[in-house]
Description:
five-stranded parallel beta sheet, 43% helix, two-stranded antiparallel sheet, 130 residues, alpha/beta, single chain
Amino acid sequence: MVGDTHVLVVDDAPDYLTFMAQLLHEEGFVIETVNSVEEARRIIAVGRPDLLITDLMIWRQPLSQLISMLDEDASMREIPVLVCTAAVEAVKDAAEIRRPSTAVLTKPFDIEQLLTAIDQLLPAHRSATA
C-alpha cells in the first residue's frame, strides 16, 4: 500500500529536502528527511526504509558510506537507492551506482521523471497506485 511506503531522503540542501518531502507526501509516501550520512545510517539501522533517495555527496561524505552499510546487511541489500545528483561527471566513476536496484536521476529533474524512477524501483508502489 502506498501509505505504508517509507522513503528516506538524504541531502544537505534544506530547500531540496522540503520540496521532496512535500511532493512525495502528496503522492502518498511516508517521508523522512535527514541532512547527513550519520543521521541516515542511524535511521536505516532502526527502521528499514522501502526506498532511499540521496545525493552522491552529502556534506563532502560519499554515498559509498551509506551503500556499504546497506550491502553489509543481507536484510538491507534489497533496499533500492535513487541517486539524485548534479554531479554528472562523478556518476561515471561511482562504483556504488552500479549496484542492483540503484538508479540515477540528474538534477535538475522534473516531477514526472522522479515519479517514473520511483515506480521503476518500487514495483509494489506501481501496482498499488494503478
